[in-house]
Structures are given as C-alpha cells and as structure tokens.
Amino acid sequence: MQVAILTGGPSAEREISLKSAQLVMDHLDRNKHTSRLILLEDHGWFDEETGVRLHLNDFSLRLPGERFYFDFVFLMIHGTPAEDGKIQGYFEMLKIPHSTCDTLSAALTFDKQKCKDFLSRFEITMADSIVVHDAGASIDLTMPVFVKPNKNGSSYGVSRVEHKAELPAAIGKALQFDDEVIIEEFIAGTEYGCGVLRKGDQIIALPLTEIIPNGEFFDYEAKYLGASQEITPARLDDDATTACQDISKRLYQILDCRGVVRFDFIKQGDQFVLLEANTIPGMSAASIVPQQAEAYGWTIEQLLEIIIDDCVRS
Questions:
Q1: How far is it, in rounded angstroms, from Cα 33 to Cα 267?
Q2: SS3 category, 275
Q3: Any bridge partners for residue 37, and if so which?
Q4: Residues 6+ apart with CB under 8 A from 69
Q5: Percentage helix, strand, coil for the chain under 3-state DSSP, each rounded to 5
Q6: What's the pLDDT tens digit per position in 224-263?
C-alpha cells in the first residue's frame, strides 16, 4: 500500500502532530507499505522529502517520472482540521480510507460540550459543565472548576480556578485557543486513560494508564515533557480495571469510532467520570497509547497494522 502520513496543520498541537507522524513513519511495516510524510501548511500540502506540492483534486503526488496515488492516509493532525472531522470529509469524498473516525464522529467528539450533551442519554457519568463565550459570563458552578477551550486538546489554554475572581483571566486564556470555553466542575480523584480499537470483529480495550501529574493536573508539560508519572498497567484491581474498560468499549460503540481512540476518566470513589474522548490520540514516544499497546503485548508495528486493517475494512 502507498500510505500518506498527514501531519502538521495550523493548531497549537502542531508539534505533537509532527512527533506522532514520525513514530508512525518509523514503525510502518516496510515489507507491506511505502510511506511518505505529507505536511499540511497554510499555503498548501507538501511532500516532506521533496517539498513538492500535492494535487488536491485527487490527493496525488507528481514527481519527475512517477506519480503517487495513495491507498491509505494516517491522519496524525491533532486538533483542527482533522480531529474536528473536516479533513475526513475530503478523504471520504475521494474514497481514500483513513485511520480515524468519520466526519460526524470526529466533529462530535471534538466539541466537548456537544459530546457530553449527546452522551447524557446513555447514562455515562460526567462532570457538570457550561459553555461561555466571553470573560464576563455569569457562572453558577461550585468552585473549584476547570476552564478550557471547548474545542482543543493537549491541555492548551487550560486552567484550574479556585475562586470566582480568577475566572475572567482563565476564560481569557482559553479564548486564545477557541471561541468557546467550557467550564467544568472539579472532580477529585485519580486520572486514567484507556485506549480502544477494533481488531476484526472484536473491540479491544488496552491496559489502563494511571496518570499522576507533578503539578495540579495533566497539562502540556505533564503530557509531553515528562512532568508526570504514567503507570501502565494502572494500579487497580481487576474489577475496577474491567469496569473502566467496559465503559470505554461501550463509548467506542456509541460514538461509532474507528481506529484507535483514547478515553480519559477521573475515578471518584467507585465511579469512572468521563473527561473526554480523543479520536486522534498522541502517538509520539511519550504518548499513552503506545505505552498501552506495549503493555498489551503488541509492537507499534502491530498496532499500526491493526488500525489499517480496521479502517480499510470499515
């Protein structure tokens, strides 16, 4: 297969996207696939090796004496325009299979509040929250709260707020990354992440990761710069582990997911409270899903093959 690994993009998560794409590039089975890194820039989409611009009418790469038509696309763009479903629509029109959820599922999960509104009918436990659009909005939630962009990832623009007087500054910070801000009640407990994917007809929940940030919460430094402990498999008994994995597999089905998705939770008492769904989770060497795949007994190469197989079959 000719595989394009699409990376870059305009979002604040560009750096993570580039690292994730490189891991995919390094671990794709070269006996089965030929791969090229494709950079999404404001002024066009370019082959990383040659700098040649792609033809977007058919997503082809034309080099002297040869022309590449891609059979599969690994979408390694975190944030817009991939995690929100925009690019998926393009590839779906071209009938080129890709590694993530479809347009609808991606758009729904990227909007944190709309995803919560949708999931509320399925008895999924979630924190109370509201969405605001300006720093002067009236807030009726018990402090402390988390303030974050409603449509963004990697903890950019996220603040923990202890007092209402701090809210305007925190909302202003979040508005640098989105035009909507979600304010969510603080849930005390330990954070866990669970990667889920489909292999054949079976939905598999990977071993849980227990996340212990050195700071107040699992922010950018904790996620990508080593300022946290990430324990895989998590230090939970079998019953609690199975409960979280079962919720994660159910969410995967409810949200009609494809490829690998990571669901994040806070465990409060005996309950797992859903934080969010990540339909294009980080795939860098420091990311959680590669850790979980290794703990499950898979190499990164095997993980990527399972993703390709699922998404080509879907």
A1: 41
A2: strand
A3: 5
A4: 2, 58, 59, 60
A5: 30, 30, 40
A6: 455 578 999 999 999 999 999 999 999 999 999 999 999 9
Read off the tokens for 196: 């889920």
- Tokens 């929940």: give the residue: 205
160 forms beta bridges with: 146
Taking CA atoms, 79 is separated from 115, 149, 195, 209, 300, in Å, by: 16, 11, 18, 22, 23
Q: Which residue has the tokens 């962009």?
A: 149
- Specify the pairing of strand 190-199 against strand 181-185: unpaired
Q: CA-CA-CA-CA torsion for 219, 221, 224, 230, nearest 10 degrees?
A: -70
> 26-45 as b/e, with b when 16 or more CB fall inside 10 Å?
ebbeeeebebbbbbbeeeeb
Which distant-in-sequence residues (6+ apart) come within 8 Å of 182 by Cβ? 112, 113, 129, 130, 131, 147, 148, 149, 150
Distance of CA 11 to the CA centre of its chain: 13
Q: Does residue 190 sit in helix, strand or coil? A: strand
Each residue's pLDDT tens digit, 64-112: 989 999 999 999 998 889 999 999 999 999 999 999 999 999 999 999 9
Q: Are 269 and 253 in contact (CB under 8 A)?
A: no
State how far the alpha carbon of 188 is from the alpha carbons of 74, 184, 216, in Å: 36, 12, 11
- Predicted TM-score of the model (pTM): 0.91
- Are 299 and 92 within 8 A, CB to CB? no
Alpha-carbon distance of 30 to 164, in angstroms, equals 55
Helices (H), 28-163: 86-94, 103-110, 112-119
What is the spatial distance between Cα 240 and Cα 270, in angstroms, rounded to a whole number?
8
65: Cβ–Cβ under 8 A, 6 or more apart, which residues?
none
